[in-house]
Specification:
By secondary structure, this protein is of the alpha+beta class. The chain contains 4 helices and 6 strands; from the N terminus they run H-E-E-E-E-H-E-E-H-H.
Length: 185
């Protein structure tokens, strides 16, 4: 595989990784609740597991309250069960087709556990980032071994790959730092 194509593929994979990381950060509760916190929780309806975002409209009522306006009242039981199973510490209130989720104020202890969760997720994503970098480097080395890439280009490619990897790692670090500030309030 040509060097530039390998670098382009690696960059595309890292861009996807950053997008997934951004979505994961939205699922970590901060001072203000976000619909992203619950939209992917799967609830049992019609003998299948469906994400809450497919069962109704999700929005915020206030900084500490989310509303799920379900399309059908028959979803209520499955939704409540799924939310309780998710173990997010949200209190649930039902009013007809609407499910209200209220979060208690964050304590110093809960903030600390959220920061620990954030750091764990960050490390998991950094491992994936390193995996993508190693995979691309292996492709470059294989191209060199096959005679498709010159030795000078191999090392220039490694430098570009390292530069790109560093750029995306710094992006993710910045996102994690912002989320930590948000959690700390």
């Amino acid at each position: 595989m040509p060097l530039q194509q390998t670098l382009d593929n690696a960059k595309a994979e890292l861009e996807t990784l950053v997008s997934v990381f951004r979505a994961e950060l939205l699922k970590i509760r901060a001072s203000n609740l976000s619909p992203a916190l619950v939209e992917d929780i799967k609830a049992g309806c019609f003998d299948q597991e469906l994400p809450l975002k497919q069962l109704g409209a999700i929005g915020t009522v206030s900084a500490r309250e989310i509303i799920i306006q379900l399309w059908d009242k028959s979803y209520v039981e499955g939704v409540i069960s799924a939310i309780e199973k998710a173990g997010m510490g949200l209190s649930v209130r039902v009013d007809a087709n609407n499910v209200y989720l209220t979060a208690p104020s964050l304590t110093a202890e809960s903030r600390q556990s959220l920061i620990q969760l954030l750091n764990k997720k960050k490390e998991e994503f950094f491992q994936v980032l390193r995996h993508h970098r190693d995979k691309a480097w292996k492709e470059i080395q294989d191209g060199f071994a096959k005679g498709e890439i010159r030795e000078d280009d191999k090392f220039k490619g490694r430098d570009k790959l390292d530069e790109t990897t560093k750029e995306f790692r710094e992006k993710m670090e910045g996102m994690a730092e912002n989320k930590e500030k948000e959690i700390k309030g």
